[in-house]
Amino acid sequence: MKIAILTSGGDSAGMNAVVRSVVKAAILKGCETWIVREGYEGLVRGNTEYDEARKTGIVEDAKLPPGSKEIVPAHYKIQPTDPYFLHNLRFGDGPLLKDGTGDYGSSGKRTLKGRYIVRVGWDDVRAWFAEGGTLIGTARSVAFRTREGRLKAAHNLIREGIDALVVCGGDGSLTGADVFRAEWPGLLTELKNTGLINDEQIEKHAHLRIVGLVGSIDNDMSLTDLTIGAPTALHRICEAIDNINSTAFSHSRAFVLEVMGRHCGWLALFAGVAGGADFIFIPESPPPASDKNGGGGGGWEDGMCDAIHKHRKIGKRKTIVIVAEGAHDADLQPIRAEYVKEVLTERLGLDTRVTQLGHTQRGGRPCAFDRIMPTLQGVEAVDALLESTPDTPSYMIGIQENKITRVPLMEAVAMTKEVAEAITNRDFKKAMSLRDPEFIESLEGFYATSELKVSERLPSHTFMRVGIMHMGAPAGGINAATRAAVRYCLRHGHTPLGIHNGFRGLLDDNIQPLGWLEVDTWMARGGSELGTNRTLPSVDIGCVASKFQTHKLSGLLLIGGFEAFAALLELEEGRKHYPSFRIPMVHLPATISNNVPMTDYSLGSDTSLNALVDACDAIKQSASASRNRVFVVETQGGMCGYLATMGALATGACLVYTPEAGINLDTLRRDVRFLKTRYALDVKGKSEGRLVIRSEQASSVYTTEFITKMLKEEGGSLFDSRSASLGHTLQGGIPSPIDRVRAVRLSLKCMSFLERQNEALQAQSTSSSHGLTDVNDNTGTTNYGEGTGQDTEIGYNSTRHWHVPPESAAVITIQSSSIKWVPVREMVEHADMKHRRGKKAWWIDSGVKDLVESLVGRPQLVG
Ligand code: ATP
Hints:
Layout: E1 2-7, H1 15-28, E2 32-36, H2 39-45, H3 48-56, H4 83-89, E3 117-119, H5 147-159, E4 164-169, H6 171-193, H7 199-204, E5 209-214, H8 230-251, E6 254-259, H9 266-275, E7 279-281, H10 291-294, H11 300-313, E8 319-324, H12 337-348, E9 352-356, H13 369-387, E10 395-400, E11 403-408, H14 409-424, H15 428-434, H16 437-450, E12 465-471, H17 478-492, E13 495-499, H18 502-507, E14 511-513, E15 532-533, H19 541-550, E16 555-560, H20 562-574, E17 585-589, H21 605-625, E18 629-635, H22 642-651, E19 655-657, H23 665-681, E20 690-695, H24 704-715, E21 720-725, H25 737-767, E22 778-782, E23 792-796, E24 809-815, E25 818-823, H26 824-827, E26 831-832, E27 837-838, H27 842-845, H28 848-854, H29 858-862
The structure holds adenosine-5'-triphosphate (ATP).
Residues 8-10, 40, 140-141, 144-145, 169-173, 175-176, 179, 216, 218 line the site of adenosine-5'-triphosphate.
């Protein structure tokens, strides 16, 4: 198969990772690969000008080495040192499009002038990860919108013999792809009738295979949770908010931020959640009509001022309002940042500034998520093309929670259009219902954590005293999760109690109610604001039980890694003897190692992957400067190789060593052979640095130092080596936006889980004659801020029970495409307690380590 890939519409971070992954995955499957420069515009222009030049002999094509196969059938398995593979490896004469001019290759022979559809090889896309935007160019093509333009595009594809197309772009680009495929048979007939193609070509190209990948910073495509580039844009916005926060606080100012998003409020909403904003405006959930138009008050201005005034009244010194570019009120009247500023200045007397982030949101290095997901999606796209038949629909590759999905392109495009139509028709309920569940939950989460109101208080007999504890090493997002839990509690009338320094702190009565304002800045804080350690309840289980009783805990939220899981297990087992443990308890996994059984994802793992990517980008630059250096990078992660493996995928490392796979002499011999072969194949003077990632506990004998020295010795004149240990830097400084947003979402789910379990236990105890009734009429305090005079007295009851079902002590997990509650008791059979990790892991089952090595050609070069 001859596969071409193009990027179209607005550029987004991660598009290069898609191109790299599609090119490499396609070559590995025996396909020929092409890139189309400048999006659909390149497809319309084709290679006509270049072909003329070729006739005159001014330019030459690279030649295949003797004995290699030009076209390889899809089922063909590439053999080690296969001439086809080697040819593809060396096809380009260095990175094709990185010489700054865009139009001329460095040798002068492989010119790109007048040439928009270009054959590319393996090494042409090396190291494309770290680059933002799209290196193959993008455009908004007017010509492709016309049938005439699409006819030219079809002709150009057929002339190059291309039979499959990967399109990476936004909803417009994918609509274009859909139109193109629908018209294909008609275009072919027209080309035949005008004599531009012959019968043989008609037969060969009767079926155009198309697959779409969504590259767009807006995250506006239906049927996928995330579009490629949206997470990086969110990073840029959150960096800006974090920077603005300090100056806003210093001067007690208000800032109005306008962010991108014409028809979709995803960026504004998620930035609002992750940045801890006070108020947001998004198109899907517009506020009431403006006072300006309706007159007489009661417009959104009142709602906004009221909310912000409440925050200011309890002592908040800074105000952040986020406005999506396409925000409007219920009358579809646009809401502009400048006008929001006027309202805040005039009505609340706030010193207000407007910041428009503009194109800074598009640019910059892709975050870890925008390297890993596009890589996995690119591989899936190639598979979808290879499996495509005339009867299968064109697919769009998407993502749901943690799962790469294939959905019919037409359906996704139609649903996306429905959202825009629903907004235009003022059917905002429908617009919201068409967004993915995460969007809706995040909006609820935003209100739950940003609004200062108690209107959602539950009946007083259901009020709980919820202990919140951090356990194990700090991980990005644990403070954000705590903030969300605290605010949820206060909103519903519960008393949130911060337990400082884990179970040791509890034994020392280091436990205090947490206030709304007190946790305000915790969103962006790294480390652990509550303090944490690894002590388990078994240190003195009886005393821990008595402390539960002393502090009248009626619910517990444990945030942490494997220790938190082990602690919850001990508490659940302790229920047999200690009634004070017969309360709802929940564990929210948070660890950079991502080693909690049965969950694909733990809070903090995204932050640490980003820390690893940042460090490795810098290291790789240094390694490349020395041309032929291999860096052996050591990561944390305990006995779990998740961080090392996903880090290797995100940085394009060529080898990865994990505790699960271990290291032995055979592996080392093979890997040395690979590096020697690979460096020998590099174009002279164009060698680049390479990374090897080693998980700290991959082997107790073959240490990082050993491997580094061995590579240096074996590399001879081909390469030398250095090592770098990333250590605790991997815990990351500021938590990543994805960790923050997930922290809020999962934490709120944990709190409503505690409420549900509490209600069930109460219902059970009132109906059961066996119920041990131990009702406490205590008084909790709703503490909104320090010294604000707003504290309110509330009642509190708790009931202890004989028969607590195991489900009431559970772990919140993400499994593939859904969130699931797993009773901690059930987790045991899935846990490898000795190695402190799950018995199974999705990234092992889906062969990520093999993919890392395949994408650098290790198996192809040395078996
Ligand atoms: P972004 O989300 O960044 O705006 P996008 O892909 O939605 O990206 P558009 O400008 O809408 O950006 O579309 C990109 C290109 O896709 C257009 O310039 C045009 O060439 C093509 N295209 C869009 N809609 C159609 C259509 N209905 N028919 C044919 N081609 C289309």
